[in-house]
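FORM 7B: Structural annotation worksheet

SECTION A. Query
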Amino acid sequence: MRVVIAEDSGLLRHLLAETLTAHGCRVVGQAGTAPELLHLVDAAPPEVVVTDIRMPPSYRDEGLVAVEQLRRRHADLGVLVLSHYAETAYAVRLLECASRGVGYLIKDRVQDADRLVDAVRRVAAGEVILDPDVVQRIVLRPRVADPLRRLTAAERGVLALMAEGHSNHAIADKLSYSVKTVEKRITAIAQKLDLRGLDRNGPAAVNVRVLAVLAYLRHDAGVPSAAIEER
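SECTION B. Predicted structure
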């Protein structure tokens, strides 16, 4: 698997490259700035980009802006963004620019080599994953006029695990449900949140998971949900 790394800290960039290489990935490019990242990917698109969000010169959202541009030009590019903070607004932007093949991890997770490599492989395979800290922040934060109150406690539990990127089978194992029960919960979640495009037998079935997670995130990040549409 070919990977490009974008991180302004040379020490962390070296750690990421060393870890991924040791686990069978080919690090084909390293960048310290967003423009360098854009140039590397456009010149020879890899399978996955691992990038910091805050990069020079302003250390705001340069990495995320670069990701938004790259996914418009390279639709199949897998993206794993790293951040020091569990910012749900960043997670919303990431999911809005791509409905598959994206992930968001807190930087502390990169010390766990297995977790990092698993995240890279999963986004390369088209999965969507969110850091458990982001999900936990959403679960614990009180909300006003929360549409998620329509969900039962069991449905909220399923939605939280969906947000972390777990498959239906993994959710069933964690909650001691049957896969059929998980599917029923997801269907109920989609109906209660009024998500469009529910088609368990077609490509929209993938998007329903992303739409549900977006609805989940938006009410923590203060983003209006009225315009939630099938991507």
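SECTION C. Observations
Residues 19 and 112 are 10 Å apart (CA to CA). The domain at 2-131 is CATH 3.40.50.2300 (Rossmann fold).

SECTION D. Sign-off
Analyst initials: ____
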